[in-house]
């Protein structure tokens, strides 16, 4: 494990012992007999740790630097992907990937946030925080989907829309609002999958969908725990407390009716078995898409509207 979180240390320590035994086994094969017991123990500890993760720990896992991103899933899930660039207004935002591909024989539009891998790549992708041109690019491609009757699949993984001055100067809030409006009335099927972080309007701008899915260790929230802690308590140390209050985990959001399904992850998270995770996402999305395609377009739009309206419902007593 090249990267690990604090709560994963017990697992990492056992893995290090296993690696040492493998090295010793080259000169003393009997030492290899100890490995199965350690692997069994490691599996038990892993399952115990991941069965009781706190919301803050899940947030850390959702941000894991080794976690598969949109570009990884595109490579593993879609055939013949052709990337489309630019918003035809200002430029091309690398924090949003858009294009055409085939999913189990279907021609689909794919859109997703991209954080990048490694420091240079993350800087190039602006750490997955889109500028207005990123959202306008996404909208342009979604309009093509509507025109040519192609389903839309989106992957959500962003800390939020880029909050810099230049983004505000180019109309960040208007770009997000326009996407929310247009996505709410597209007649083609729309499925969104939160694969890591789903932060604020930056996530909403590509996730107004018929079906909202989340990976087991992803998060989806109006604000980051750090931002919430800073606003409410002026104390970043209370981020864990904020995460608890925000109800941002997949389990919480399923209970609240914000999402339709949780896609389970391999023990330890998606980065431990990316191909297995991609297969499960593909299978789930295909099943949802088949069901949506049976619904007439006008009815699909009505159902999407009803789905959105029921979120945040309350009863006065």
Quick take:
This protein is an alpha/beta fold and 317 residues long. Helix content is 49%, strand content 15%.
Describe the protein in words.
The chain has 317 residues and is an alpha/beta fold. It folds into two domains: 6-52; 59-310, 2-enoyl-CoA Hydratase, Chain A, domain 1 (Alpha-Beta Complex), CATH 3.90.226. Helix content is 49%, strand content 15%. The protein contains 14 helices and eight strands. Strands 1, 2, 3, 4, 5, 6, 7 and 8 form an eight-stranded mixed β-sheet that branches. Strand 2 (96-103) and strand 3 (106-113) form a beta hairpin. Helix 1 (9-24) runs antiparallel to helix 2, helix 3 packs across helix 11 (239-246) and helix 4 packs across helix 13 (274-293). The longest helix has 20 residues, at 274-293. The protein starts with 8 loop residues before the first helix and ends in a 7-residue tail after the last helix.
Low-confidence stretches: none
Helicity range: 40-55%
Counted by DSSP, the helix tally is 14
**Number of DSSP strands?**
8
- Can you tell me the CATH class of the largest domain? Alpha Beta
**Major pleated sheet:** 8 strands, mixed
Q: Could you spell the SSE succession in H and E letters? A: HHHHEEEHHEHHEHEEHHHEHH
Q: Label the structural class.
A: alpha/beta
Strand content: 15-25%
Determine the CATH topology of the largest domain: 2-enoyl-CoA Hydratase, Chain A, domain 1
Backbone CA Rg:
21 Å
CATH architecture of the largest domain: Alpha-Beta Complex
């Amino acid at each position: 494990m090249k990267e690990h979180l604090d709560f994963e240390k017990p697992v990492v320590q056992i893995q290090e012992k296993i690696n040492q035994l493998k090295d010793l086994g080259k000169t003393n094969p009997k030492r290899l007999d100890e490995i199965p017991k350690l692997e069994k123990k490691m599996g038990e500890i892993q399952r115990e740790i991941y069965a009781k993760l706190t919301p803050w720990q899940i947030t850390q896992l959702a941000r894991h630097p080794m976690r598969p991103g949109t570009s990884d899933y595109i490579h593993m899930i879609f055939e013949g992907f052709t990337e489309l660039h630019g918003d035809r207004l200002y430029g091309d935002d690398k924090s949003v990937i858009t294009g055409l591909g085939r999913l189990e024989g279907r021609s689909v539009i794919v859109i997703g946030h991209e954080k990048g891998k490694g420091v240079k790549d993350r800087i190039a992708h602006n750490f997955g925080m889109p500028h207005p041109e990123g959202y306008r690019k996404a909208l342009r491609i979604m309009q093509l989907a509507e025109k040519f009757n192609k389903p839309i699949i989106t992957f959500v993984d962003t800390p939020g829309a880029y909050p810099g001055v230049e983004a505000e100067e180019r109309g960040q809030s208007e770009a997000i609002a326009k996407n929310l409006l247009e996505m709410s009335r597209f007649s083609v099927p729309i499925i969104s999958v939160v694969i890591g972080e789903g932060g604020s309007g930056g996530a909403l701008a590509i996730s107004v969908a018929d079906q909202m899915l989340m990976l087991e260790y992803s998060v989806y929230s109006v604000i980051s725990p750090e931002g919430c802690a800073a606003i409410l308590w002026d104390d970043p140390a209370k981020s864990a407390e904020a995460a608890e209050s925000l109800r941002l985990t997949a389990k919480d959001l399923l209970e609240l009716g914000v999402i339709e399904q949780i896609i389970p992850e391999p023990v330890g998270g998606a980065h431990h078995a990316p191909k297995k995770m991609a297969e499960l996402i593909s299978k789930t999305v295909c099943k949802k898409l088949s069901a949506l395609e049976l619904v007439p377009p006008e009815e699909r739009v009505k159902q999407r509207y009803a789905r959105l309206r029921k979120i945040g419902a309350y009863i006065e007593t």
